[in-house]
Design brief:
- It is a single chain.
- It is built from nine helices and 20 strands.
- By secondary structure, it is mainly beta.
- It has one domain: monomeric porin ompg (Porin, Beta Barrel).
- The chain has a 17-stranded antiparallel sheet that branches.
- Helix 3 runs antiparallel to helix 4.
């Protein structure tokens, strides 16, 4: 069987067998803070497809398989506050306690703050390099999600107090009484409140959500790539690569200011799980059948190149995510009153807030069908690297995108040093800087075990947590199963 067909069949087979497994951010273990400059094998897909033939981390490997790689990142401007961590970790000397805050106290602390939760799962990956090193092919299947929010005060008030929120001037009780809102209800009184009314009638979604931005996306991707090396191993080399991806979306929600007006759009499906029979009402129509599958489809193209000097230094560049995603969903009406609401949870349960906030049913009662095409966040990447002897590799890279799409950073840059301590153990560390955010120091390790070079690894998002009083991001990436031959 030809080498390229052999690698492709194995990759597809793992994808089918492990379709239920899940994985985080595309910063895998072993690359420090420079996922672009050190993008190799199937991990190069989405960063630089030219890395299928240029593989500085393991230049002598021809076949790499992977599965069950993934992690998650939680980032918030609130996390960058030392008083929060002082109270959370019960450190002495904290000037402000969060644990005893009431509803109003939480509103004061969290209003207009940002929160982002991102994750990615590599379900399966396979890459194969030809025996002469001139050609490389790869396949990868991933699932990814991103959730971002900036809560305005009125939105948080609704999430914590429901119908008793301060946005309502009056509240309606179960016995029919309507009383002015004093924002000091007892637990028993809160359970009796049926609805809230402001002076102009029921509170409108546009009024409550006016200073809030919400976003959620869940997608599955199938990516293939091919790379070609030009030149020989003794002189200059040029590696060129092309990657193509099919995107299938199962959930999307976006509430944001667009051209001065508030816009809300969402699309959700049961995706690849067993659908609910009543969701299609056993309808043979096209609209009924669509509910059995994804509600978003799209395509993307990646282009990459690497220039390698005879001494081993390399310079690389790529253009990724050239394409679009089309969602079949609903545009929500903001000029109608909110649905009946109750307090969702204790003020400190922020993950419950995120879950409820990303559910359109929390805010909207009326919607209109709409098909919306959204451009992918096209990104420019630049990188370089070199070896210092046999045991040390250093690299640097930067990426630019519009910073307005879900999961984008605007400007990202980083530097990394990789140390091969033993034939079976490699550690890496670096510095990563995001636009408008603090410096991060990710660290990780990769261990190769056995004759077949079975690999495991892990990467922590920021080592500064060991000596700083606060950190804006909590992130962990794990590599559970990977083989290189």
């Amino acid at each position: 069987m030809r080498w390229w067909l052999q690698g492709g069949i194995v990759g597809i087979g793992i994808s089918i067998g492990l379709g239920g497994w899940a994985q985080v951010l595309r910063y895998p273990a072993g690359v420090g803070a420079t996922p672009f400059a050190l993008a190799t094998d199937y991990r190069a897909l989405g960063w630089n497809p030219a890395g299928l033939t240029h593989m500085p981390l393991h230049p002598n490997k021809g076949w790499v398989l992977g599965a069950m790689e993934g992690g998650v990142s939680i980032e918030s401007s609130v996390f960058n506050r030392a008083d929060l961590w002082d109270d959370l970790l019960n450190r002495e000397g904290n000037e402000q306690a969060w644990s005893g805050l009431g509803s109003t106290g939480w509103l004061d602390q969290l209003s207009d703050q940002t929160l982002s939760v991102q994750g990615e799962v590599l379900v399966a990956g396979s890459s194969r390099k030809s025996p002469n090193g001139k050609w490389g092919v790869a396949y990868a299947a991933r699932q990814s999600f991103v959730s971002e929010a900036r809560f305005g005060r009125s939105t948080l008030d609704i999430l914590t107090a429901g119908n008793a929120a301060q946005v309502f001037d009056q509240v309606i009780f179960a016995d029919g009484d309507t009383l002015f809102n004093q924002a000091n209800w007892t637990t028993e009184e809160l359970s009796q409140i049926l609805g809230g009314i402001d002076l102009d009638g029921d509170a409108l979604a546009s009024r409550v959500l006016g200073n809030t931005e919400l976003g959620f996306s869940w997608q599955k991707s199938h990516e293939i790539g091919v790379s070609r090396r030009w030149g020989n191993s003794e002189g200059w080399q040029i590696h060129t690569g092309l990657g193509v991806k099919l995107l299938l979306g199962n959930g999307f929600f976006r509430l944001q200011q667009t051209e001065g007006a508030l816009d809300a759009f969402g699309a959700f499906s049961n995706g690849f799980s067993i659908p609910r029979l009543d969701s299609t009402a056993l309808s043979p129509s096209l609209s009924g059948i669509r509910q059995w599958g994804p509600v978003g489809q799209g395509w993307g193209v990646d282009l990459g190149v690497v220039f390698v000097h005879p001494s081993g230094h390399w310079f690389s560049g790529s253009l990724t995510d050239i394409g679009w995603m089309e969602w079949r969903g609903e545009r929500y009406r903001l000029d109608v009153s909110l649905p009946a609401l109750t307090g969702f949870s204790a003020p400190g349960a922020w993950m419950d807030w995120m879950t409820r906030a990303m559910d359109p049913a929390t805010w909207f009662q009326v919607s209109d069908s709409e098909v919306r095409r959204i451009a992918l966040p096209t990104t420019v990447h630049l990188g370089a690297g070199t070896r210092l002897g046999e045991a040390i590799l250093i690299a640097g890279d930067m990426s630019f995108d519009n910073g307005k799409s879900l999961g984008t950073d605007g400007l990202r840059m980083g530097g990394t040093a990789v140390f091969q301590l033993t034939p079976w153990l490699r550690i890496d560390g670096g510095c990563r800087k995001l636009q408008g955010s603090n410096l991060r120091i990710p660290v990780g390790f990769t261990a190769a075990l056995g004759r077949k070079h079975f690999e495991v690894g892990a990467r922590a998002g920021d080592l500064q947590a060991l000596w700083k009083s606060s950190q804006p991001e909590v992130a962990l990436y794990l590599c559970v199963a990977r083989w290189s031959f």
